[in-house]
Specification:
Blueprint: H1 39-50, E1 58-61, H2 68-80, E2 88-92, E3 102-106, H3 110-132, H4 136-166, E4 169-174, E5 177-184, E6 187-188, H5 191-196, H6 199-256, H7 261-276, E7 299-302, E8 312-315, H8 320-324, E9 326-327, E10 330-332, E11 335-337, E12 343-344, H9 347-351, E13 355-359, H10 360-364, H11 367-379, E14 381-382, H12 387-390, E15 406-407, E16 411-416, H13 418-427, H14 431-434, E17 437-440, E18 444-446, H15 449-466, H16 473-486, E19 492-494, H17 497-513, H18 521-535, H19 537-547, E20 558-560, E21 562-570, E22 575-587, E23 592-595, H20 596-599, H21 605-622, E24 631-636, H22 649-661, E25 664-666, E26 669-671, E27 674-675, E28 681-682, H23 687-701, E29 708-712, H24 723-731, E30 735-739, H25 742-750, H26 768-788
Parallel strand pairs: 1-16, 1-17, 8-13, 13-16, 21-26, 23-24, 26-29, 29-30
Antiparallel strand pairs: 2-3, 2-7, 4-5, 5-6, 9-12, 10-11, 14-15, 18-19, 20-25, 21-22, 22-24, 27-28
């Protein structure tokens, strides 16, 4: 069979015809907010959003730049705009258990209204209540109570004084309290006078003194009772004054919230607490203790007064505090303390009743946040804990809180890579139960007329939303072609719309720089060229090495055992093809094929697999009726950075066959493609970049008209080479051949028939395989003869 002919120009790049569009420019198109090219992912999201059962949270798989975040935001906003707004939440003081603040639920907007109502109560407590105790009537009532107590106390003491006088004793006031002493001649008896009395008289006086002392204790008890009664009268008066002063405000609050039992219970507890501590509201310059009004305040945790539809929250930094909430602390007199107004909401609180979108990788960086989120989803409550409850031994020695949990109803949407999804599924036993919906966002979509039009609508959306000049049909077509280039496939388009949007913006910039009102295809080409220029310094340095012959590679002539292979260098933001010389040496021995790069551990497992596959091909092709006895070495010349992948295995095989057959290889033709044990050439990646890399080197040295690249047939549909290569092929100065077997490649590279094996397992004279087989037999015989000698 004749060798393959070069591919036609039409096969090298799928061109988008601008005439196929039903518009002149994108100003005629409506911007699209739909998710483009993701039917599987969209269907999964619709299911996950629609089902309300527990555990049906969503994990969105996809590469960065596929537009997941923007698409999900628009999708959810569109789906949730008409849904009822979720409730507000506040924390208030728990008068029964102060370290456990109470959570109260309100209709949207009700939290702020309740706070305002409590602020009016606080105003009364600060201003109206103290004024109620500063009236003439109140002072007169207090004076009356005091006067009554003084009168009653005086009566009790007067009765005791009379009884003592009748017994010959006097009632004395000493620094230590009241005392009773005997009297003689109208004066208190001194200790000397008492000692001078007869013993019987002293005993009599002691008995009388004890009896009077008992009556004195009884009098003191009666006075304390009178004091208690007076204090109770003052407290009752104060409570009545306070009740009267606050009656209007409290009545209004009770009436307003009578349909909400939990709120009403808090109001009743707060009012009772005010009455229990009413003495602290009475003006008193001498009292150091002040009333704590903080307990009557409201901590608004979630306020949905301005919300439209259910919330869609994107949390960019999902640590524990940002996700679950936090309790802030204050330093007071050298000690850490806090209170319920220091409770701050997390994104779970704000998303409650709606959707919370998180980046899985960012979330997993915070182990406590991930564990807390799983616990919240399983228990369906938000349990906010202090740091000491999370950190174990590293406790915060501080006054802490244990807020009442808030019921949780939220749909979590995690975004991450496929690898992360499957790793979580395997290693975390809770993950599969909590995230039952997998929304797979592919990085490519089929390139169809509808897909091309969807690209046009996407471009229109960017222009409308960002105020960019609109794209004409030619510019849209050029962006679509770049979309195929990004995914290395003529029949597919990239869904990495972050990159497409970047190209749209940059093309619009260059159109504006030249004062144009519309973006053209030339502006898109210029934007792509500028992107490459900003990133290809490394590529130019390598090209300089070729120019200076620091990297040795021949693009003309013929050499035995030497093939130009092709590799792709990926720098993240830019990838390019780099030719590499592959050489082979064959000689007598039984060591088999040795890869020098492998021996020095510069190759990866995929490359090693390709080498072993190559050995399998040699055995199957040439060792059916004779031993495979040889030693051979292969090397990627001037390789200092390591090799992996099997895309050079066909080039290595060509080098070996050339060395064994003594057939020179055309150095103007480079090779890429892997090979299997049957000699079939298999598709590889980066085919367009590889072709362009060799083309640029040949162009720099001068195109001969016979140079080109051999690629696998299976890669033809992946060709989206740049227009410089297309023009060179059209001019006949460069070529691309597609081969399906090693035999086809042999005939293109060595200009010699490969040969087919006949029934006697022999290859025809003059064929490459016959020459290789003969050389292998010679090596085996020479080795045997050498051993016998």
């Amino acid at each position: 069979m004749p060798p393959p002919t070069p591919l036609p120009v039409e096969a090298l790049r799928r061109v988008c015809d601008p005439a196929s569009f039903p518009f002149d420019d994108t100003s005629a198109l409506d911007p699209s907010s739909d998710i483009i090219g993701q039917p599987r992912g969209t269907r999964a999201i619709e299911f996950g959003v629609g089902i309300r059962s527990q555990g049906y949270n969503i994990f969105v798989l996809g590469e960065t730049g596929t537009g997941r975040v923007t698409a999900i935001r628009r999708f959810l906003q569109k789906k949730t705009a008409g849904e009822p707004v979720p409730p507000d939440w506040v924390y208030v003081y728990n008068f029964a258990v102060p370290h456990q603040p109470t959570a109260l639920r309100f209709a949207p907007g009700g939290a702020v209204a309740f706070k305002n109502d409590l602020d009016s109560l606080l105003s009364c407590l600060r201003e109206d209540l103290p004024r109620a105790f500063d009236t003439e009537e109140y002072h007169e009532a207090i004076e009356a109570i005091d006067a009554r107590f003084e009168e009653q106390q005086s009566t009790v003491l007067a009765e005791l004084q009379t009884a003592a006088r009748e017994e010959g004793f006097a009632l004395l006031r000493r620094p230590s309290g009241m005392d009773i002493a005997p009297v003689v001649d109208g004066a208190v008896m001194s200790p000397e006078q008492f000692q001078a009395l007869p013993a019987e008289t002293q005993q009599q006086l002691d008995r009388q003194r004890l009896q009077l002392g008992a009556r004195l204790d009884e009098a003191f008890f009666r006075i304390r009772q009178l004091e208690t009664t007076a204090r109770q009268e003052v407290e009752a008066l104060n409570r009545e004054v306070a009740r009267t002063a606050l009656a209007h405000v409290v009545a209004n609050l009770r009436e307003r919230y009578e349909a909400t039992p939990a709120v009403l219970a808090f109001l009743n507890a707060a009012f009772a607490d005010v009455l229990d501590n009413v003495r602290l509201f009475v003006p008193d310059d001498e009292r150091e203790e002040t009333v704590d009004l903080l307990r009557y305040q409201v901590n608004v945790l979630v306020d949905n007064i301005a919300a439209v539809g259910i919330p869609v929250i994107f949390e960019p930094n999902p640590n524990y505090a940002n996700l679950i909430g936090r309790i802030e602390y204050e330093m007071v007199y050298g000690a850490m303390t806090t209170h319920f107004t220091n409770i701050k909401a997390g994104s779970l609180h704000r998303a409650n009743g709606g959707y919370l979108v998180l980046n899985a990788r960012d979330l997993l960086r915070h182990g406590s946040a991930w564990e807390a989120l799983k616990r919240a989803l399983k228990e369906e409550v938000i349990q906010l804990q202090s740091p000491d409850a999370l950190d174990g031994p590293n406790q915060v020695m501080a006054k802490s809180l244990d807020p009442e949990p808030i019921p949780l109803q939220v749909k979590i949407i995690l975004m991450g890579s496929p690898g992360l999804f499957y790793k979580l599924y395997d290693l975390d036993e809770d993950f599969g139960e909590l995230f039952k919906v997998k929304a797979d966002f592919d990085s490519v979509m089929p390139r169809t007329p509808d897909a091309d039009l969807a690209y046009a609508h996407f471009i229109a959306g960017r222009c409308h939303e960002e105020g960019l000049p609109h794209f004409d049909r030619g510019a849209v077509a050029r962006v679509i072609e770049h979309g195929s280039r990004l995914c290395d496939h003529q029949d597919k388009l990239s869904t990495r719309f972050g990159l497409i949007a970047g190209l749209v913006r940059e093309a619009a910039y260059w159109a504006g720089a030249r004062g144009a009102e519309r973006v053209t295809a030339e502006d898109v080409r210029h934007a792509i060229a500028e992107q490459v220029y900003r990133s290809n310094e490394a590529e130019e340095r390598i090209q300089e090495h070729f120019d200076e012959n620091l990297i040795m590679l021949t693009t003309t002539g013929r050499v035995v055992g030497q093939v130009n292979g092709l590799a792709v260098i990926d720098l993240g933001d830019h990838s390019f093809g780099q030719p590499s010389r592959i050489t082979a040496q064959t000689y007598m021995g039984e060591e088999g094929v040795i890869n020098i790069d492998r021996e020095v551990e510069m190759t990866g497992p995929l490359h090693n697999k390709g080498l072993l596959t190559l050995v399998g091909y040699l055995g199957g092709t040439y060792a059916q009726n004779q031993p495979l006895s040889l030693s051979a070495s292969l090397s990627f010349e001037q390789n200092y950075g390591g090799v992996d992948g099997d895309s050079a295995s066909s080039a290595e095989l060509y080098a070996l066959l050339s060395s064994l057959a003594g057939a020179p290889v055309d150095q103007g033709r480079a090779v890429t493609g892997s090979v299997n044990q049957r000699g079939e050439v298999q598709p590889i990646g980066g085919v367009s970049e590889k072709i362009e890399g060799f083309f640029r080197l040949c162009r720099k040295r001068g195109l001969t008209g016979d140079q080109g690249v051999l690629i696998p047939v299976g890669n033809v549909k992946h060709l989206m080479v740049d227009e410089e290569v297309v023009e060179a092929v059209r001019a006949g100065t460069f070529h691309v051949w597609a081969v399906s077997t090693i035999d086809e490649g042999v005939e293109l590279l060595m200009d010699i028939p490969a040969g087919r094996r006949d029934r006697q397992r022999q290859y025809p004279d003059g064929s490459l395989h016959r020459r290789v087989q003969g050389r292998l037999r010679e090596l085996a015989e020479e080795l045997k003869q050498f051993g016998e000698d």
